[in-house]
Amino acid sequence: MEPAETDWTALVAHTSMHRGATCGIDARAQVTESGIVFRYVLRAEFSSVCIPPAKSAERADGLWQHTCFEAFVKASAAAGYYELNFSPSRQWAVYRFNGYREGMSSVDLGASPEISVRRFDDRLELDASLRLNELSALQGASHLRIALSAVIEEESGTLSYWALKHASGKADFHHPDGFALELRSAPLQEFP
Question: Is 128:111 a contact under the CB 8 Å cutoff?
Answer without folding.
Answer: no
